[in-house]
Amino acid sequence: MISVVILGAGNIATHLFNVFEQSDHIHVKQWYNRTIDHLKHYKNKVDITDDLSTLEEADLYIIAVSDDAVARVSTKLPFENRLVVHTSGTVNIHDLDKKNRRGVFYPLQSFSKAAPIDFANVPICIEALDKTDFKTLKYLAKTIGSPSYKINTDQRRSLHLAAVFVNNFTNQLYRIAHEITESQGVEFDVLKPLILETAKKVQDLSPYMAQTGPAKRNDKKTLKKHLDLLKNEHHRAVYELLTQSIQNTHGRKKL
Amino acid sequence: MISVVILGAGNIATHLFNVFEQSDHIHVKQWYNRTIDHLKHYKNKVDITDDLSTLEEADLYIIAVSDDAVARVSTKLPFENRLVVHTSGTVNIHDLDKKNRRGVFYPLQSFSKAAPIDFANVPICIEALDKTDFKTLKYLAKTIGSPSYKINTDQRRSLHLAAVFVNNFTNQLYRIAHEITESQGVEFDVLKPLILETAKKVQDLSPYMAQTGPAKRNDKKTLKKHLDLLKNEHHRAVYELLTQSIQNTHGRKKL
Fold first, then answer.
1. What is the pLDDT of residues A160-186, one digit of tens each?
2. pTM given for the model
3. DSSP notation for A117-179
4. Are residues B157 and A109, on separate chains, in Cβ contact within 8 Å?
5. pLDDT-derived band at B181, boundaries 50, 70, 90
6. Contact assessment for residue B100 and residue B82, using Cβ atoms and an 8 Å cutoff
7. CA nearest to A27, candidates A46, A42, A14
8. Which residues of chain A form CATH 3.40.50.720?
């Protein structure tokens, strides 16, 4: 049994609380937030507090607050030599106050407040300065059914950046596709199976091997037809840059 | 029972043959290809030919050849007033020779030769000049378990273009993410659940509603950190353009 105190009331904190609560091997001793109102809904399930000086002793403190607030909260903790981790993709492990044993427990997934999360699909990036602490965090990930990876601060930052490409930027390409189809009165639904298939394909194949299409083939006729069709100047800029990107990767000349 | 002749031996032709063969309601009468060698593997399953003058009578002729060859093949067909369709995303329905009844049966999905296809996940874009022919094509799609949509030539071209954004360009973003993680010695595997989740999210939510991240929030600190991390000039150009694109969509100022 591992005892945990959660600090923060955002998406990650809430999803962690929910998954921890389902486990027989994890006991959430206390849940802290600066504004206790956000925790009121949970007051019958867990001891809630907005006062750091009342924090109870636990095996692990998880600071799941905004990136900017991580260091400040860690400094205010009224104890020493306990295991304190944050959940951020970008904050350095050394930004945590060194009076405690430090670590990172970064779940790399897109969390929305409403939808329930299957933690089997949430890779946890773990970092710790101490071997025993690393094992504790690895055990925690295993207990909630998540795959875990040993990732240092530089690597974690790269992952956070790469996540913007595969999540936010990819979603923006979906948005542009939506704009293109909508302008012709076509349902976006027609594209949904292809969107899913494209994501599934790289689960087993590298993106390099999975690539197809006119840019890779350097099919100039189709590339020209597409550019002629694109009336939106901004869509055209995206088309040109990503076509060039594919051709750089696959050794074709510039557009 | 609907009788079909397939012309061409590429990915689409082969996948259509395989799915037609499994149906009790479709009979593939003949399979034509200019180079008969590519069909030899199937000679015990279907009548194969490389001679257009020997084509048998059938309810439907499916021209699944390269875009450039569609019109030429349709002109060479030695009969009139039969239903002839092509399977291309970009070829005009009127490019088919008008001596026959014309239509389009365009499966919008990413086909690779090796992997088997579940046609339940292949939307078919249907166009026909005649109502009865349209119904025949709709019935064919239903018989192989595919959803179908009535899509005219202009709409089909938009879909073909939009498909490049959600398939080839999205895959290139995966590739860039792979390059970023690889440069730090991180396994690309860590990103795979996020890739899948991003695609799943827009199955129920519009891409507009699904967007999150530093660009949408206009989180300048994170945007700057990311740009500093990006040593590859080309990656930086993609980051800047797609950040701007998100901010255009969500009403933020330029980077």
1. 999 999 999 999 999 999 999 999 999
2. 0.94
3. --GGG--EEEEESSHHHHHHHHHHHHHTT--EEE--HHHHHHHHHHHIIIIIIHHHHHHHHHH
4. no
5. very high
6. yes
7. A46
8. 2-151
Distances in whole angstroms, Cα of residue A251 to Cα of each of A183, A243, B165 = 34, 12, 20
Give B29→chain A minimum CA distance, Å.
30
To the nearest whole angstrom, how far is the Cα of A193 from the nearest Cα of chain B?
A: 6
Strands (E), A8-92: 26-32, 47-49, 60-63, 83-86
The nearest alpha carbon in chain A to B242 belongs to A169
Who's near A79: CB < 8 A, 6+ residues apart? A55, A57, A100
**Cβ contacts from A onto B, under 8 A:** 295
Topology of the domain covering B156-249: N-(1-d-carboxylethyl)-l-norvaline Dehydrogenase; domain 2 (1.10.1040)
**Given CB atoms, is A25 within the 8 Å cutoff of chain B?**
no
CA distances from B148 to B135, B139, B231 (A): 11, 9, 45
**Residue B98's closest CA among B77, B126, B118, B119?**
B77
Report residue B30's pLDDT band, with 50, 70 and 90 as the boundaries. very high
CA nearest to A242 within chain B: B169
Q: What angle do CA A104, A106, A111 make, to 5 degrees?
A: 150
Q: State the nearest Cα–Cα gap between B146 and chain A, in angstroms.
A: 11
Separation CA A164–CA A11 (nearest Å): 18
Is residue A171 within 8 A of residue B202, CB to CB? The reply is yes
Interface of B with A in 73-132 (CB under 8 A): 90, 108-110, 112, 121-123, 125
According to CATH, where is 1.10.1040.20 located in chain A? 156-249
Task: Please indicate if any CB of chain A lies within 8 Å of the CB of B165.
Answer: yes
A2-151: CATH number: 3.40.50.720
Are A149 and B187 in contact (CB < 8 Å)?
Answer: yes
